[in-house]
Input
Amino acid sequence: MYDIATYVQAGCVADAVAALAADPSAMPIAGGTDVLIQTREGRHAGCSLVSLHGLEELRTIRMEEDGTLVIGSGCTFSEITASALLQSTVPILCWAVDQVGSPQIRNMGTIGGNVCNGVTSADSACSLMVLNAVMELQGPEGRRLAPIAQWYTGPGKTVRRHEEVLVSVRIAKADYEKFGGHYIKYGKREAMEISTLGCAVSVKLDAGKKTVDDLRIAFGVAAPTPIRCPKTEALAKGRTADAALVREIGRSVLTEINPRDSWRASRAFRLQIAKEISRRAFLQAVQFAGGDCNA
Amino acid sequence: MLNIIHMTVNGKEEEVAVDVRECLTDTLRDRLGLTSVKKGCEVGECGACTVLIDGKAVNSCCYLSVWADGHSILTVEGLKGPNGELSPIQTAFIEEAAVQCGFCTPGLILTAVEIVGTNRSYTREELRKLISGHLCRCTGYENILNAVERAVAENLAAQK
Amino acid sequence: MAIGQSVLRVDARDKVTGAAKYTADLEPRDYFVAKIVRSTIASGLVKAIHVEDALAVPGVVKILTCFDVPDRQFPTPGHPWSVEKAHQDVSDRKLLNQRVRFYGDEIAAIVARDNVAAGRAGRLIQVEYEEYEPYVTVDQAMAPGARAVHAEKPGNILAHSGFRLGETAYEEAVASEPDLVTLDKTYRVQSVQHCHIELPNSFAWQADGKMNVVSSTQIPHIVRRVIGQATGLPWGSIRVIKPYIGGGFGNKQDVLYEPLNVWLSLQVGGRPVKLEISREETLHCTRVRHAMDFHISAAVRRDGTLVARKCLANSNQGGYASHGHAIVANAINSFKQLYRDEKALECEANTVYTNISVGGAMRGYGIPQGDFATECLAEDLAAAIGMDPLEFRLKNCMQPGYEDPHTHIKFNSYGLYDAIQKGREAIRWDELRARYRNQTGPIRRGVGMAIFCYKTGVYPISLETASCRMVLHQDGSVQVQMGATEIGQGADTVFSQMTAQATGISLDKIHISTVQDTDITPFDTGAYASRQTYVSGMAVKKTGASFKKKVLDYAGYALGYPVENLDIKDSQIIDTITGEALRSLADLAVEAFYSLDRSQHITAEETSHCKINTFASGCCFAEVEVDIPLGKVKVLNIVNVHDSGTLINPQLAAAQVHGGMSMGLGYALSEELLFDAKARPLNPNLLDYKLPTAMDTPDLQAAFVEVPDPTGPYGNKALGEPPAIPVGPAVRNAVLHATGVAVDALPLDPQKLAAHFQAAGLIEE
Output
């Protein structure tokens, strides 16, 4: 049995917001794969929980008229991967969340939980960074939007206020259309893994499929929060997508990331991996965008 | 703090009083006697507690029992036919020598039920990914993959 | 013939339906839970434990500390007890310990109504320590002035041993020839854990004038004895029950917490107390495979002759002795038992107390460590003289008829050459060695190999004894009771096959009791040392003969037939001359039970005291692909070939090999229990401790050379542990072939590999 002091099942998002507002110590729980584990290990022992589990209004996956994708925060990773709409628009995200934990965890864990726990290793984070995702929050005063670039405020911290509930993740058409993207999760194992380093690359080529029109690179576990690499992105724009650029990207990202030394991996090793997987992710992303760096 | 929940367990309607602090592993084992649901880590890493909820494999150790209200649960106790006959998946596990200590077996069989139930074929590499949420220390997964491959193939052959 | 048939496991149906009951599935309804309070330092002394706040938590029944336990030290390894004091296991721990010797040492226990109350109480207990500097490595613990981890062992060396072979010392041998190629190397292996999926749980209660304990153990009869030694209870007043077991791999060949569990139950008036050990506790507080360092010098002639070797092995014991020195002593045996040094072999070993997790038995009992050293060395020596490493092995490895000069264990059957040849063909050794010779680029491939040998059981180092009982049922079927334990390996199935072979009773009429109950099932020391099919198999064979004789004696009486003309075949009493079936065993059984003239319950029980041993052997061949910039190794193809005598059940034998190969791959590539400078474990959970998943495991090929062993009950010899032994060095040697980089420490994890590749200039900017 989990050491849970109080438990409220919200019937709707407004319920949850009210319950969170009423209890300054309460935490939202959705899939349970993080909160329950931390409760067991004692970090949240004696916690008060407000459950968003199963709320239908958080489980939407749809496209708005202007092409904006709306992914309900309560969607599980496997629902996202299985979504035909998302596969046809943001396959990088479908692929990325298919790297989370294990099939069972992907059937339970939600994308909302993955971004709200604020950790740098979250598998969805890098892809959402390169997709310029926008978080839609609901609080006592109504809804507000927070671009992912401003979402993470520190390790395990986000701009979500205590009483707010993440309702959805939004991705504008201009951020996915004509982009090819790829995410590489580097872990010691091929499954059941927390990322040692993650890199997402999203690239848009010109009509001739030779020149980089737009490039976005994001890393997880390369800094206290997921980060983009603006200098590297800028240097690639207008450049031919070729082997020379591939090498340059690998060198350039090293000037923008700041991974830490830990027992899980040394800084030197993470830098080596970053150099290599940014190159490989770029190569693959260019292929998905219709080009070929080796052509 | 007991809550009454209603769920279908192995095809049978159950009304159960559960503590809100209870995970589904405990409810199935302690209140319904379904001890095939094993505890190996309690944090969703080993897969021994896997059950199917509405046909999807989940780790019942990190799933609050109150969430099961209104849902349908399957454990291996629910796989046998009315006269005790084994399901083809269970038979495949036995005949392919996919069972050794047996502790990961019930969970893996349930994941296999989910896989077979999709009525499609898979490469061996795809199957490796689909069973990667189950740790097994006895088999190296070799005969488990053989059993799942066989169950998938037999099911497709039976569909034709 | 039941031997050699791939019959289905006798317990598989129970295991796929959920009918198989393991320890936690049998717990009584009215139990208390116990939770161990563990030290949050790795070395020191408990000065005081404040339990007042914890006792006030609703649901807490009792809290017992290291100041409450009996002042008795006891041993924990699952060895037969030695009646000679000098050979007895080291007794170096109490039920709860005031002197803290590893991080997580047991210092107190909470008995509560449920785990929430126990957890809350645990967080409220305050402990005052006198803290000492912890020792993570053997070098720290052996340094001059180091504090004794155990007062009985100043200097921290638990034991030292060694041996010399050849007429000269190593140095003389090297000096005796001018043109020898010499090598000085240090090979290291890491701490790893068994990771059986069932945790080592138990529950205990008082009833029927006894203390009863149900436990997930490989060694119920030894658990009974050690509970007595730890608590002072008479051994006969303790009853140990072993139900289905979810894997052991040697960790449950230690008496882990059963004595504490029994004692806790006694402290609450004999009420049932359940002691569940979590995965985290299992990983760092039960037992691990010893980390070892091998410091080696070796000399080889340019024609490939191994001339001399010298090895010093240091084994990191952790905080308590457990199996102690026996394991590294076995590890250095790899040197003498696997290769022939023309002039000299000197081996020494130390077992050193430190403050990391306690080393114990784990699949291979020192040989995985020793084999890594000998097989890296063989590869490196071959490379040093430019010789094919397979040819080097053929030239220098043990030959048919080898007998260990100290233990006198022999290769009573020998299949090593054939195994090497079979592996060579399966992996396409000659073709791939040539093909992968001169590679460039970031992705490279290689093939590597390793050989091993392994004894069968523990004779003559220790007692080997096994007992079996066969009881006729009223329908002519037979109940077989073994002291030997099924822990997942398939023992019950092969014992059933042996019973069929020995008695002539058909397999479907053989029932085997999977539950061992020390009040009922006969004595056997348990599942370890790859001994049961050999040693306990002898007990089955002997009991089967005795049982059959009794049945035939009765048949002779009932049929009025000369006994010497009777036999049992397929559960029929037959005339050996005509082959005619005279009566079914079913009918005979009814008569034997209910005869008004001569009623007899036919049973037989025998002890087999085994005074023989034999070497099994084999090899592993691996083909790998190395992603140099990412430091990743992908195993493309891997085959183990085993010389294990006659296979009792080929399908289960292959399955056993697969599991060992997978464990070997984890050892080779990813598994390592890590400790920080304070000896705190860093990764005691299944997310951070990298057990291979299905996606990390290639297809596994098991192959055999079946040379019947004349000493085995049915031509068989060791197979349980061997599959895990040669995989680590084979993979390491394949990576060496692929990249030219010799990595001398396991695991070959990405960070270590990337650092090596960087140092070798293989990674470009």
